[in-house]
Amino acid sequence: MIVDDPKKVVSLLLPFDTYEQVQKLAKNTERSIPSYIRQIIRIYLQYYTEHAQEGKNDPLIVK
After folding, report:
1. Rounded distance, CA 34 to CA 36, Å?
2. Is the pTM of this model over 0.90?
């Protein structure tokens, strides 16, 4: 589904090994690299919203 929400362009600099990991995972899920990165961010933000209060010792909650 395409959403016509306002968008903001963001530039991202990754170490090459991280880029290769993302590239491989994107290919495995048949997504483009930008689409896969958006998916990662979307899933993390959802997780953060649901677990931030209890995430004192959760390594996925960045404070």
Report:
1. 5
2. no
